[in-house]
Amino acid sequence: MESLTWVDGALEIIDQTQLPDHSLTLRLTSVADLREAIATLRLRGAPALGLAGAWGTALACREAGSPLDSRYPERVRGLALELARARPTAVNLAWGVEQVLASLSGLEPGRWTAEACVTAARLHEADRAAGRAMSAAGADLLHAGGRYLTHCNAGPLATSGVGTALGVLLEGHRRGLDFEVLVDETRPLLQGARLTTLELQQAGIRVRLITDSMAAFAMQRLGVDGVFIGADRIALNGDTANKIGSYGLALAAKAHGVPFRVVAPLSTIDGQCPDGRAIPIEERDAAELLGYGPLRWAPAGTAAWNPAFDVVPAELIQDIVTEQGLLSAPFPGAIRKALAEPAIRTRTVQGVQDEV
Amino acid sequence: MESLTWVDGALEIIDQTQLPDHSLTLRLTSVADLREAIATLRLRGAPALGLAGAWGTALACREAGSPLDSRYPERVRGLALELARARPTAVNLAWGVEQVLASLSGLEPGRWTAEACVTAARLHEADRAAGRAMSAAGADLLHAGGRYLTHCNAGPLATSGVGTALGVLLEGHRRGLDFEVLVDETRPLLQGARLTTLELQQAGIRVRLITDSMAAFAMQRLGVDGVFIGADRIALNGDTANKIGSYGLALAAKAHGVPFRVVAPLSTIDGQCPDGRAIPIEERDAAELLGYGPLRWAPAGTAAWNPAFDVVPAELIQDIVTEQGLLSAPFPGAIRKALAEPAIRTRTVQGVQDEV
Q: What is the pLDDT, as a whole number, of residue B341?
C-alpha cells in the first residue's frame, strides 16, 4: 500500500479512515480537497504530511490563476499556507510547503508548477531513502525472541516507504529475526488497531493487540524489550511530540528500564523550537471521544478533553533513530551536530511556521 | 439507580452493558442466570459482586432440591462455588458466598433459604453503611477548585450505595465543593465513558471525558490534584488489583507527585493473599479488543492480550480509604490492625477460595 502517489497531475491517497475494511483510493486535485483529507486524517503520519505539503504546494501553483498576473506569487503562498495550517503539531507539513516554496525562489512564475513537482518528487524519493536508512539503523537494536511495543501507526501508511518505527520492525523481520510486537490500539482514532496490526500482519510479523492502558502491565507481566514510536515534532533539546499516549508509555518504560526509542527523519526536528513547551498541541473535537464511527457510547453532551498529541521529555528517550543513525543523550549537542551535516540537509521552516 | 435489589424472591439488576442508552432491569431467579450476568458484566463492581455472591447463595439454597435430601448441603455448596468462579479477580464475590455459607453452619437445611436471605440483607445494609463511611473519610481529602481523576466505574452502579471512589466525589459535591473530574474512558468495556460520566453528571458534577492514554498528559498540562480508584482485591501488603490501566495511571501519578488513592471496603482485602503476585488476573476474550459492541475495527483474526485487571504495587498508593478511615503506609501493619478490629469484621475466605 502506498499512502500517497502523484499520478497524472493529482495526488492519489488511500483513505486511511476506511481501513482495514475498505481500501479506497481518493484522487485529490485541489488544495481544498487535500486540506480536508489531512484535517480528517484520511492522510496522516508526519513524514507523509511532509510530502502532502510538498505536493500540495504544486497543486497551489497550478490553481493560483495565471502566472502572468502580478498577484500570482502571493496567491500561491496564500494557498500553501492554508494547507500548512490544516494540522498544527506535525512540523513536517509546514516543512514540505517551505521546501517547495524555497525551490521556487528566483524562478519566473510560469515555471513554478513544473519546478514544484520536481522538488516534491525529490523530497518523495528522499523520504523513501530516509526510511530505508532509519530502518537499517533501528533494526540493529532488535534481537531474536524479543518483544517490542509500538503506539499509533508509524509504518508505510504514515510515510512514503517502509515507515519509521514500523520500518525498523519490518526490516528486523526481513533480516530473519523472530519477535513479537505488542500494538497499542491508540484511542481515540485507533490507528494502532486498524493500521499497524494490518501492516505488521501482512508482513508476517507476530502481533498482539492491546489497549493503551495495558502497556504498563505488559512491561510488568510479559516483559518488553523495547518501545519504538514515530514523532510529529522534535524540539532542539530532544523533547518529542507524538500521538497522545506516548508520554504515559514513556513513563512506564522508564519505570521498567525498557529502552524507549523515537524513529524519525531529521525533517521532524524543528530548528525553531527550543523545547517541548513550544510545540503547539492540536486539540480535536470532543465528539471523537464519545464513541467511534457510527457508534456513540458516552451520554449525549458529555464534555471531553481531546489533545491529539503529547510531549515525551527528552530524558525519557534512549535514542532518536534517524537517517543519519542514532542520536543519543545528551540530545541538544547530538541534534545540533546532525542538523549541521550537509548530506541530508534539514531546514528550519521559519518562513512558513511564523505565519502558521 | 440501584445496581441490584432483592425483590420478591429474585435479584433485580440493571443491565450495565446497555447503559447509558437503555436502562433495562433484569430479574434473575437462578444461579445460572446470575452467573451469566456476572460473566458478561451486566452486573459488575467489586462490592456489588460481593452482594451478588451473597444473594446468589440464597438462590442456590432454593434451587438445590429438597432440604430433606442428604445431598442438599453438598448441592448448595456446589452451586455457590460455581457462582464464585464466575470471575476470578474480585475477591468480594467469593467473600459474599463464604459469608452466607458460614451463616448456615449448624442450621437445619430446611431453614437455609430463609437464613441466607437474612444474611445477604445484612451484608447489603453493611455495604451501604461502608459506602457512607468511606465517602465521608475520602471527601475530607478534597478541596474546592480541585481537579480529580478516576478510572473505570466505582460508583453506585458498582456497589449498593454511593459507591467507593465515586462515593468520595459525590460526597464532596454534596458538601458544596466545586471541582472537576477527569474520567478515563476505560477501554475495552468503557465503564468510565458509559457509567462514570452518567453517574457524575446526574449528580451535577463537572466532568471531562479523556482516553486512558491522556491521563499522564493531563497531569503534566492541566494539573491533577488526586486520583481515586476502587479495588477488586487488596493483598495484605497493600498491593491492589483493579481495572486494567490502574497500574499505568499510578506510575504517571507517582511521576507527577499526584496522590493516588484506593477507596474500598475492608471486604476487598484478601486475608490469604500476601502480595500482588498471588492475585489471579482474569484474561478475557480477545474479541473485546477488536471493536466495541456491533462494531469491529481491527483486521479479522488479529490476536490480542486482554487482562481485565492489573496490580498497583503498594508503594505507588498514598492511602487506602476504608469504612474505618484511611489506611496509610506502611500498609502491612495498617491492614493487619484494621482486620483485627471487631467493629466491621472482615473474614478470610479460605474455605471458598481454596476451591475456587
A: 75
